[in-house]
Every structure is written in structure tokens, then in C-alpha cells.
Amino acid sequence: MAEHKARKRFGQNFLQDTRIINDIVDAVRPEPDDVVIEIGPGLAAITEPLARNLKQLHVVEIDRDIIARLKRLPFAGKLVIHEGDVLQLDFRSIPGMKKIVGNLPYNISTPLLFELVEVADEVVDMHFMLQKEVVERMVAEPKTNDYGRLSVVLQYYFEMEKILDVPPESFDPAPKVDSAVIRMIPNSGRIGVADDFAQLSRLLQHAFQQRRKTLRNNLKQWVSDEDFAAVGIEPTLRAEHVAPEQYVQLSNHLLRQGV
Ligand code: SAM
């Protein structure tokens, strides 16, 4: 097939390291009947070995040239191609419990992760290649600099584990940053406990807005000392000192108060 020139605006850094590709596919462990969705198949580095073990593979791709190439692949008959922006995809329209995989375009990874939280109840597991710095924020513990809104929301919904560090040379073109692969498994006992995800998300946005300020200050328009007391959070703490489950308790309490 003709050469494809990597497009920066679509975050195209193609995997070329066979060892890393094999490690990712081994981590996913596709079984023939699994419902697997690959985000951004690109030149099919992961797609091909994944499809080998599957009856069918869903792929989501935005680049029309790449879509045309995918349709010409020898195993194209196994692919269900969703053309367009993954941020617009209704994951629930694909029936079944899903395994989601992707060497993600780094410019959309954070909004995508926030969206995936909302379909966590239909997910078996997810394996993503991300900027290493994002992976570190995802798994960060309270009281560290990396701990923020992303850590709280994702840790509340998923068990997460970094499974692989990936250097820039594993890609063509090589990105300027280090990468890592993370495994995310829904935290089934906890799903649904946040009564209103939008409310929780808004609360976290405000709580972490100015990291050096206290929670009382950042949330003063919204949360009274009585509200903090009701869920046992000390209002003089900074946002990074509060655990994910405490934020969920506060969000649910506010909802009950009609805030
Ligand atoms: N999976 C391939 C690999 O590992 O070599 C390509 C990975 S490349 C980092 C990201 C892929 O996502 C590209 O194929 C790109 O065209 C696609 N992509 C970028 N933005 C997208 C979007 N918003 N929705 C769907 N696909 C997107």
C-alpha cells in the first residue's frame, strides 16, 4: 500500500515496536467472541494481531485516508468500521460487554477518559497507550502533586494499573514525550454510587480550581461548613487531601440538600 504521511492534527504516532505491540495484545487477551473496540486503528499495528483472534473487531477512526486503507486490508471482512470522531460515538450503540483498546491520540485522551466513565457499566476492561504523565495523574494518590480531578473521577470508577512503559522510539514519528500503557477495570462495587456524575464533576472542577486554596475557599459559593461537617470533611484542607469516596459523599449530600 502507498505510504501514509502521519497527520499531527490527528495525533498520529504509529507503533512500530513488535515487542510492545505483542505485549499490548497479550494484555488484552482477546477471545473469539469478545466485543472489542479499538480506538484509532491507524495503520493497523495493533488491529491486525487483535483481529487474528477475533470473529469481529470494532474500530473507530477519524482519518478518511486511513479508513480507505482499512477497507482494503486482507482481514477487512472482520472489521466493523465506525467512521468519525470517537468523542461523538455512542458506545452503548455497540451491544455487549466491551473491551476497549487504543493507542490514543494524546490531544483527546482526557475528554475521552471522562466520557468513558459514563459507560463503565458496559466495560470489561480497557487498555490504553497514553502520555506517561497522564498515566501518572490517573493513578496518583491523595496528597501528591499529580492527584487531581482526573485521578478522583477515574479511581472512583476503575481499578487502574500501569502495565508498560513505552519510549518515544517505539513510534514513527517519535513523540516528544514518554508513553505508558494502562489497564483499567471497572470498580463494580462502586458504580452508580455517585447519584449524579455531572454534579460530582462540577464539584471537582471547583475544588481543584486553585490548588493552594482551602476547600472552604474554593467551594464557598456552594458548600457550607455544615455540609462539610455532615460528610466529615475538614473545610480547611486543600482539595488534594480528600479521597475519591469523600468527594462522592459530598456530591450526594449536596444533591440531597437540593444544591
Ligand atoms: N493504533 C495505531 C498505532 O498504534 O500505530 C495508531 C495510533 S495513533 C497514536 C492515533 C490514531 O487515532 C490515528 O489513527 C488517528 O487518525 C486516530 N484518531 C485521531 N483522532 C481521532 C478521533 N477524534 N476519533 C477517532 N480516531 C482518531
Helix content bin: 25-40%
Q: Give the total of beta strands.
A: 9
Helix/sheet category: alpha/beta
Structure annotation, total helices:
10
| CA distance, first residue to last residue | 58 Å
Bound molecules: S-adenosylmethionine
Mean pLDDT, all residues:
94
Rounded to the nearest angstrom, the radius of gyration is 20 Å
Question: Into which percentage range does the β-strand content fall?
Answer: 15-25%
Give the biggest sheet: 7 strands, mixed
Assembly type: single chain
Order of helices and strands: EHEHEHEEHEHHEEEHHHH
- Name the shape in a single word: elongated
Q: Which sequence of strands runs across the widest sheet? A: 4-3-2-5-6-9-7
Low-confidence stretches: none
Features:
two-stranded antiparallel ribbon; 259 residues; 10 helices; binds S-adenosylmethionine; seven-stranded mixed sheet; alpha/beta; 9 strands
Descriptive notes:
- With 259 residues, the chain is an alpha/beta fold.
- Helices cover 32% and strands 20% of the residues.
- The protein has helices spanning 18-28, 47-52, 64-72, 109-116, 132-138, 149-157, 197-207, 215-218, 225-230, 244-256; strands spanning 14-15, 35-39, 57-61, 79-83, 98-103, 123-131, 158-166, 171-172, 179-186.
- It has a seven-stranded mixed beta sheet. The protein has a two-stranded antiparallel ribbon with strand order 1-8.
- Strand 3, helix 3 (64-72) and strand 4 form a beta-alpha-beta unit.
- Helix 6 crosses helix 10 (244-256) and helix 7 crosses helix 10 (244-256).
- The model has no long low-confidence stretch (mean pLDDT 94).
- The structure holds S-adenosylmethionine.
- The site of S-adenosylmethionine (SAM) has 23 residues, from strand 1 and strand 3.
- Its EC number is 2.1.1.182.
- It is an enzyme of class 2 (transferase).
- This is Ribosomal RNA small subunit methyltransferase A.
- S-adenosyl-L-methionine binds at residues 13, 15, 40, 61, 85, 103.
- Specifically dimethylates two adjacent adenosines (A1518 and A1519) in the loop of a conserved hairpin near the 3'-end of 16S rRNA in the 30S particle. May play a critical role in biogenesis of 30S subunits.
